[in-house]
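Q: What would this chain look like folded?
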Amino acid sequence: MFHKAEGCGMEMDNPSTEGCSITKKNCCNDEQLVVDGQDELQLQVDKISFEQQVFIASFVYTYINLFEGLENNVSSFEEYEPPLVIKEIFKIDETYLI
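A: My prediction, written as C-alpha cells:
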C-alpha cells in the first residue's frame, strides 16, 4: 500500500552545473500526502424515531416490489366484445361529387 510516489511523466534531464550558479528545477514536484481518518464517526440507529423507521420500511418495501414483472401477459382487450352496429354510420357520412 505504501510505496514511493511515481513521477508525473514530465521529468527533464538537468543540465550539468559546471560553471553555473543557477540550476533549473524540474517542472513538477513529487509529493505524498497522508491523511488520518476520523474514528469519531459512528452510525447512530437509536436516534431514528419510530415514524422514520416506519417510513423507511414502507419505502424500501414499496420500491422492492415496484419493478417485479407479471408472470402472465395480461391484456385487457382479449375479452372485449365490439359494440353492435345499429346504423351504418359510414353510409351517413359519405359525400358524393356529381
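The mean pLDDT is 73.
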